Write the structure tokens for this entry.
Amino acid sequence: MAGVPAYVLRFWENEFPMVRPRRTEAGQRLYRQADIERILLIKHLLHEKRFTIRGARQHLKRASAKPVDERLLEELAHVRAELIAIRNLLER
């Protein structure tokens, strides 16, 4: 899917701790959607943006904190909207 050889994926698993595919009892790697998205992002940073391994690792570390906060804010906004809708129904 990423268009890179298997040995590159193995190397990235060692260099980027956020890429940790699960393994079957037979030892085969099972990549989840989140793993695939991270791998594609790593490929983009290394191949297209020309980051070094170290630079890509730092970039991903900094970026990982922001989406969590943004997702939490979006979820809170969604919950708030639902609560307002429920309140409006109860006031009728």
